[in-house]
Please model this.
Amino acid sequence: MTELPDEPSGAEPQELSTVAPRLRDLRRRSGLTLETAARLVGLSAAHLSRLETGRRQPSLPMLLALARTYGTTVSDLLGETAPERDPIVRAGRTEPSRAGGWTYWTVGGAGRAMQALRVHVPQRAQGELVRVHPGEEWLYVLDGRLRLTLGAAVHVLDPGDAAHFDSLTPHRIAAASPGGTELLFVHTLLQSGAADLCLGDDARRRGL
Model:
């Protein structure tokens, strides 16, 4: 199993400064050992330990994987606060965050079964990253062109195009235009002892 990429160790974005203690607290609150949580997310125990002590910074896909495992949101991992159950998310209250080369804005409410993000994906960001995990994903292209790989099929989406798929299908998201791609992205948040996330081309070889 290929591990998810980190942020470069020399760069520690301010938005990620609170992640380490939150990761440790959420894991313990979920009743998971370091070894069990690492296996569910697709990391080594040593790698997860470095994340929990702040010696490594996670990429956005890794944050998404950790959020799913702990049944929470990326916003919660980052220590961001929002009015509980407020159905309205005002544009002036959303601040951009960066992880793994992606820039994203939280555009959904806290404590929900789904997380909604507005995401900018630069061209060539995250290379050949393939994701496999329980749940569903929905995305809508706002600007630029998106290359979406679902299993062996490759789709190019233009502005106004959307995709809704089972995220157990190995999938890859990449910008297909020089200026990158901007999209709306919604995914389900699942917490299960059977939850798993596998990254890399070996996922297809294992029949996932």
About this structure: The mean pLDDT is 77. The chain is about 20% helix and 25% strand. The CA atoms of residues 80 and 195 lie 25 Å apart. The first strand starts at residue 6 and ends at 7.
